[in-house]
Specification:
By secondary structure, the chain is an alpha/beta fold. The strands form 4 sheets. Strands 5-4-3-12-11 form a 5-stranded parallel β-sheet. The protein is globular, with a radius of gyration of 20 Å. It has 9 helices and 12 strands.
């Protein structure tokens, strides 16, 4: 179980809904993942078109919690306006806040992000900010009212996994009681397992599942990896060593001649 803003999710795997080959494949992937929530971008799906209405109806039919996002927004005004549209359409105060600052890497504009977060939190939104692994930025977002930062593992859609392990470990250690979700850049189930092994509370995956040869099978693989990673974290992993440590102690063992 995962508690986020007083809501309980049964899965630590969140799934994006973009770039799937068909609505049927998306539905199959969501079910195979047992996803705790599904993100939906209002800027990608037009609310005024039948296709957009059908898409939103499909998401509702899946029976999972919807986490609307502000994907594609580059300014505070765009992000805030999109968040208000999402609240009206989906009837939720949850919003995954994205304010993109650089087009090649899709790196967040952390200055605009904190400003937009402050505005939305003051207006009653429960904000999930897509951010970097920077400690200072995380502090500012928490001070603005955010309760669930979502640091990136790597650039969106890159599939590179956890690029900056030292910074991500530091972030986790610095905020031991704050829910943290790795968002963006995961390409393999092993990347998700690694994030959960580090103590991160959940992961959000889109491209690695949607663009896989078999998205439904890949969604199931990520679900298993998330469960394994969390179990390993709770079990307590041994620390890495620079030298061997024999599993069978040498003193007291019999010598054969």
């Amino acid at each position: 179980m995962l508690e986020l803003y007083q809501a309980t999710l049964t899965s630590r795997l969140l799934l994006g809904s973009a770039r799937y080959p068909s609505p049927a494949v998306l539905a199959g992937a969501v079910r195979a993942a047992g996803a705790g929530a599904v993100t939906v971008s209002l800027r990608r799906e037009s609310g005024g078109e039948r296709s957009g209405q059908a898409f939103w109806a499909l998401i509702r039919e899946l029976g999972v919690r919807v986490l609307p996002n502000t994907a594609g927004c580059h300014t505070v005004k765009e992000a805030v306006t999109t968040a208000h549209m999402a609240r009206e359409v989906f009837g939720t105060t949850w919003i995954k806040l994205e304010v993109i600052g650089e087009d090649d890497t899709l790196q967040p504009d952390v200055f605009g992000l904190t400003e937009a977060a402050r505005v939305l939190c003051a207006e009653g939104f429960e904000v999930f900010p897509y951010t970097t692994e920077d400690l200072v930025v995380a502090e500012r977002l928490l001070a603005a009212g955010c309760r669930v930062p979502m640091p990136w593992g790597a650039p969106i859609g890159s599939g590179r996994g956890l690029n900056n392990l030292l910074a991500l470990r530091t972030l986790r250690a610095h905020f031991p009681r704050v829910p943290l979700i790795i968002d963006a850049g995961l390409g393999l189930p092993s990347h998700a397992a690694q994030a959960l092994e580090l103590g991160y509370d959940a992961v959000l995956v889109n491209t690695a599942v949607a663009r896989a040869g078999d998205p439904v099978a890949m969604a199931g693989a990520f679900a298993q990896a998330v469960a394994a990673g969390r179990a390993a974290f709770e079990a307590g992993a041994i620390e890495a060593r620079d030298f061997a440590s024999p599993s069978t102690p040498v003193p007291g063992t019999a010598l054969l001649r």
